[in-house]
Structures are given as C-alpha cells and as structure tokens.
Write a sequence for this structure.
C-alpha cells in the first residue's frame, strides 16, 4: 500500500502500485526540463516504461491555469487552489494508473514547488500542507539546487524574465530583475526548509549538464534497485513540529513574506 502525507483522495485505491515515482524538483530555469529530456530516453533504453508529467498539464485545469495567468490578476489562494486541482487530476488520471501498470513516473516538479510558491506568498503553513496531504510519497525527490547568481544567466539566455517567475504579483519591486532576485531567493529559502522536512535529495545544479545528469542517473539507479540512501535529511516532521509557524523567510520592502499567516487575498 502506497503512503500519502495525510489522507488519500476519496475512492482512490493505492494498493498494488509497483511502479516508481521519481520527482525532479527545483526553481524556475534551473534545468529540470533539460535533465528530464535526458533521463526519459535513458530509462527507456534501460528497459523501463516511462510516463513523463508535470505542473499545469492536467486535462481538467492545465489550460485554465495558463489562461488565468495570462491576465496577471490571480490572487494567491485562487492560484494555489488551481495548482492543487491540476495536481489532483494528474494524480488520479495519470500518476496512479501508470504506477499500477509498473511504469517509472518521471515528474517535472511535484507538490514541493507548489507549496514553496504558496508559502512565499504568505499563506498559512498548516493550511498549505493539509491542502496537499493527499499526495503520494515519491520513491525519490531530487532537488536541483542553485544560487540566484548562477540562475540569472540561464534565465536571461533561455526565455527571459517572466511575470510569475519574477514574483511580480508580490509587488516587491517595479523592476522585474530586482523582483526576480528577491522572489527566487525567497523560494530557495523555502526549498531548503522542505529539503529537511520532506527528505529531498539535493543535487548541485550549478555543475555542467552532464555532471548533473550523472548524479541523477546514479540516484535513480539506486532507487530502481531499492538500495537505501547513504545519507540524507531527516524524514518529514510531525505536524506539531513547526508547521504553521509565522516565520519570515524574506524581507521585501513594503511586503513581508511569511511562511505562516492566515490564507487570504
């Protein structure tokens, strides 16, 4: 029986799921897509059936999220609930069926990115964790960690600064570059906390693409062979251990970004 972080979605059978759920996490522009494009054919060459999925790709909510974000007017709760709906739909219709069929499910981000985004926007920590508590516990989560100074050139030379990736909805700065730096720094602070809380495995994403790929490949081989990690962060804390505390994770002039606070527009 697969475990969740809380209670499974109603009617969802989590028994007999022999596949592997592998997550590639990380902030915007860190190189997740590049690595997944390398990992998928490698896994298939190794003889594994692979399902690739990711945020905002559900039939139910994927297009709606993209259309709503085009208007740059989404409130923080609406955005968070949109993402949760998208994730629930993909979990029920893609991830669980693929695991039942024995696939390796390779997902570009999971609940951790969604939680980090919500927490940076000041939503209550306990509320956010409870919202995503129906999520399956993955077999492995590889967090591509990078500093803002290394991230900026990648973003500039790929697709440039984006409204949401720069946290412009937080009104931290009218300058998109400055807002990007502050927002991504706050996201990375949240991710560092999630690494400890949920046992994510950090990978140095500032290395060359080939070096990062090698680390991921070694880690995935270990998971497929069901070998234990040699060392890693502590397992997820109990809800009473700091969840929902109002902790400032970034100081932005005119906007205090919290890990706690009541969910409100």
């Amino acid at each position: 029986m697969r475990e969740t972080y809380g209670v499974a979605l109603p009617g969802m059978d989590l028994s007999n799921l022999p596949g592997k759920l592998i997550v590639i996490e990380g902030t915007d522009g860190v190189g997740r897509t590049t690595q997944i494009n390398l990992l998928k054919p490698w896994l298939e060459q190794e003889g594994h059936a692979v399902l690739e999925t990711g945020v905002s790709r559900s039939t139910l909510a994927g297009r709606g999220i993209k259309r709503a974000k085009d208007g740059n007017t989404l409130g923080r709760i609406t955005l968070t609930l949109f993402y949760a709906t998208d994730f629930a739909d993909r979990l029920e219709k893609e991830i669980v069926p693929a695991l039942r069929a024995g696939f390796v499910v390779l997902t570009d981000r999971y609940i951790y990115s969604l939680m980090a985004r919500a927490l940076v926007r000041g939503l209550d920590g306990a509320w956010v964790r409870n919202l995503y508590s129906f999520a399956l516990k993955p077999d492995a989560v590889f967090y591509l960690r990078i500093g803002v100074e290394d991230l900026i050139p990648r973003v500039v030379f790929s697709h440039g600064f984006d409204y949401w990736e720069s946290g412009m909805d937080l009104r931290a700065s009218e300058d998109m570059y400055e807002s990007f730096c502050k927002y991504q720094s706050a996201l990375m602070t949240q991710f560092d906390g999630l690494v400890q809380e949920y046992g994510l495995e950090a990978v140095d994403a500032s290395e060359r693409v080939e070096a990062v790929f090698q680390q991921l490949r070694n880690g995935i081989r270990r998971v497929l062979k069901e070998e234990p990690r040699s060392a890693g962060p502590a397992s997820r804390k109990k809800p009473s251990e700091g969840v929902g505390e109002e902790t400032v994770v970034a100081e932005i002039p005119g906007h205090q970004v919290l890990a706690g606070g009541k969910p409100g527009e």
Notes: The helical segments are 32-45, 62-70, 76-100, 111-120, 125-131, 148-156, 176-198, 209-224. The beta strands are 20-26, 50-54, 104-108, 140-145, 201-204, 248-252, 255-258. The chain has eight helices and seven strands.
